[in-house]
Amino acid sequence: MNNAVINFNTDPKLKSEAKKVLNEMGLTLSIALNASLRRIITERKIEFIAPEIPNTRLRKSFKYAEKEYKSGKMKVCKNYKELEKHLLSL
């Protein structure tokens, strides 16, 4: 079998953790990367999944919005037309 070598930079901790998880699954980093490349080729796309856990900035925004809502300062619209009217008035 003819092989090509791909070199790329990654965080050493990321590589180590990935190798550990893959080893627990009975796989190698090479197998996982080849599977990923094959999927890109067949599907003609690559997906990046954002974590579902909000980051610090988003959590602060949630707290601020909740505070504004409870204080009555936040405008609550009952429908799209009302929202549109409000946004256009700003």
Automatic annotation (TrEMBL):
InterPro entries: Arc_rbn_hlx_hlx, RelB/DinJ. Pfam families: RelB. It comes from Candidatus Nomurabacteria bacterium CG10_big_fil_rev_8_21_14_0_10_03_31_7. Signal peptide: none annotated. Gene3D superfamilies: Met repressor-like. This is Type II toxin-antitoxin system antitoxin, RelB/DinJ family. One of its GO terms (biological process) is regulation of DNA-templated transcription.
